[in-house]
Amino acid sequence: MRKYTDRLSKWLSFACAGLVVILTVSILYFISSKGLATFFVNDVSIKEFLFGVRWSPEPSSEQVKPLVGSLPLTSGSIIISFLAACISAPLSILVAVFITEIAPGWGRKIIQPTIELLAGIPSVVYGYIGLSVLVPFIRNSIGGLGFSVLAGFLVLSVMILPTIISVSTESLRALPEQWKHASYALGATRWQTIRMVLIPAARPGLITGIVLGLARAFGEALAVQMVIGNVRKVPDSILDQTITLTSAITMDMGYTVMGSLWNNALWSMALMLLLISFFSILTIRLISKRGAIR
Description:
By secondary structure, the protein is mainly α. It has helices at 2-40, 46-51, 71-102, 105-120, 123-141, 149-159, 161-173, 177-185, 190-201, 203-219, 222-225, 245-252, 261-293; strands at residues 55-56, 67-68. The chain folds into two domains: 2-44; 67-293, Orthogonal Bundle (MetI-like fold), CATH 1.10.3720.10.
């Protein structure tokens, strides 16, 4: 009986793993076939799609042909995501160091649930807080309309904090205690040990957390969409309005006809997001592999 149970468990596990692989390949094939239709069916050049600045997918009397330039959308996603990472990364690493090396036991019991609470707040709540508090503050105190790149990356920087903090904390906790004791034995202070031993040793894990946070930032739609203004233009300053790839997809997909140029262009943007996620996963694997060798 035990023999048959083990065999059944083995085949059940194999079937579940195979189902995951099939689902992943199916999603990749579906998005790729839809996204590439813009170039092979609608005859839009890749250069025009990636570097064009005008978005007008429906022809008009004043327009010779439809235009689906995605540069304003791509630039909006890149600018907002990287600015959010620039704020969140150092703050998250400092919080992770505080949790693992400085905070007393009662401090960890307070900080850890707080971080988990941040991770559990729905994105629409972040967006609504940004819309109600941050946008009016920027409009009244700094300038512009309030809906801006600044509002977008500030909201996003708070949203990706839990991801980077969690990965960074686990990376620091995984370091051997002997390294810290050896540093103290050589006469180093706590801050010297943190700066010159622990953080360099945990660098692959810290970079992994930042990359994961960037991937989360690129994929976020609703919260950012509520505070950036959703104007299809390349921003000249952080007070300008802009739009991201995810915002454009969520706003336009319901108004397009399946198989039309507009619909296929949106699928092409989804394919771009998929490639960004793939690049992020590849980067994490390379970083982890490099860290393991050292």
